[in-house]
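Annex B.
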Amino acid sequence: MIAKVFKSTLIVVTLLFFMTQSLSSQKAGWEITTTSSQNYTGIAAANGRIGILPSSKIFRTDKIILNNVYDKESPLGVSKILLGMNFGNLDMYINDEKLDNTNISNWQQTIDMKEARFTTSFTYKNIAQISYSIYALRNVPYAGYIDFEVKALNEITIEVIGKIQTPEEYKNPISTFRVLKDLETTMPILQTVAKSRFNKHTVATSSTFIWHNINSTRENQRPELTHKKISEYDNQLSFKKSIKAKESYEFAWTAAQCTTQDFYDPQTESERFVIFNLLTPKNNLLSQHKKLWDNLWKGDIIVEGDLPSQLDIRLALYHLYAFSRADSNLSIAPMGLSSQGYNGHIFWDTELWMYPPLLILNQDIARSLVNYRSDRLNIAKKKAINFGYKGAMFPWESDDTGEEATPAWALTGTFEHHITADVGIAFWNYYRVTKDKKWLEERGYPLLKEVANYWVSRSTLNNNGSYSIKNVVGANEFAPNVDNNAFTNGSAITCLRFATLAAKELNITPDQNWNKVADNIVIHKFEDGTTKEHSNYKGERIKQADVNLLAYPLDIVNDITTIKKDLKYYEPKLAKEGPAMAQSVFAVIYARLGDADNAFRLFKRSYEPNKRPPFGALAEAATSNNPYFATGAGGMLQTVIFGFAGLHITNEGIVQKKPILPKTWKKLIITGVGPEKKTYTVE
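Glycoside hydrolase family 65 protein: predicted structure tokens.
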């Protein structure tokens, strides 16, 4: 009998051990934890509408970013994305002492990428353990949610102060506290409403506390709330609560931020979102958030045998998902929703770098990114007319209006024209993957037709029958106002050919000039056959990949001899201060050539020098400190998807050709690929 009990116990212990190991292994690929706040860069909790950037300081949020909400940066400046009202700064007192980083221990922060949850935990003087998790709710996209748990080791009294802090740049804030009531349901609402810096928008933020252990919101069942308005820019709501020893106390602070960019009445809408969060049980609210993230992670990249690479890849993909939404028809700025970097404008960074991985793994998000451009097609057509061209001419930097948003002093805004081809290429690739003929008819072809007409009008006929594209800034922005830039010309050729294919797909006769110009646009060469970056290029240092983009993704240079010559010639010329994604192009090409060592070397070089502690947020360059650079994330993901996994976007859809693995990787699995949600495994 004793032997049987021992055997049963051994089986249970063994099962528990393997279950624990399995859970630990699962978390290992999804969570990044730190106990160091040195040289700290946080990871944004974002949902495609708002971004919440945590701080290393307890109960502090560094900033809130609002997607697609712009006002002027200065009276004579261009547009700039808004810094939102900060609802993420709270204060907590225990036994009348304010908690901060100087009187706590065991500080730890964890980003759980699977659930998009950012958790901070610590101990206060061995009398309380506190943890809180920040969510940018995927299911309530204008709302944030901070969930708290206080474990009392001794009997304590806590005071918690929630705040709406309005940046000084806002105008005429009105801060209030009201208790709304419907029958016996009471809804306390802290609120601030203000005008953006130059009065373009009204911004409204509402917030409240939630107590999970109270079944209703009647006033006599919750702690007494105290409102204190420090100023119209600092609106506060607080409560006190005694907690017995060995007991846990749970509550949440939720807020919603709405603007006239998206709502006619942002003040009332922000209240409704908060009331929804207040009266929806926590488990229901957060399970909806988690379910939506589960759906996103059906498109995933799994690396076996190299946990650091797995975490780096997941963090990159997490950011692309966090900064976008399938239901928005919005695009992604280079810094996503982590900062106001580059004024929150939209560049080629989306179409050439972030969009391809998303097109492979989530066609709904990809559709939003291309629809962002087609929604602004008429503005692009006006720009072409205004510069003396035909068709549609897209801005180098775009905002909510679709007009050129680049500062006038930057030559890129006036001359970096390859953006128009980049947009067209993205459109045809969307159709190649989805085969959505209705979309092609309604959105795809109308845009492709206009951008093709632009390139015909933008090209100059030479005496020998060839065509030149003169006076441009190419992908290598160190060389402004040059003729026949390799990437500009190559992207124009590709775009013109794609427009012809799109027309034929719809049984429309394509303009014969599209192929005529495409077949005769000049691509210059050195005497040894190496592709020349522009007509007067003499070997100068380059900012980022330009010529090599003709091999990938354009497939214009496709003979192996030239591809290798171009790789060898241009890699040493890349500037150290150049952006992260430059090396990604080289990595993809080497992988497709079957050179796993060089591909992996450049894969790591494309982002590792740009990682910032403690979570590995990517800066734009090894020498800069402006995380999170979503463009770089897109580049390194392309190395994995289109290089190591060997996936290609073709007119027949997504196909796999000659995958190859780095030596340290045992297996690469990509799930949720394409409309059929296929899984590709490389061993």
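The domain at 34-296 is CATH 2.70.98.40 (Beta-galactosidase; Chain A, domain 5). Residues 1-23 have pLDDT under 50 and may be disordered. Further annotation is deferred to the next reporting cycle.
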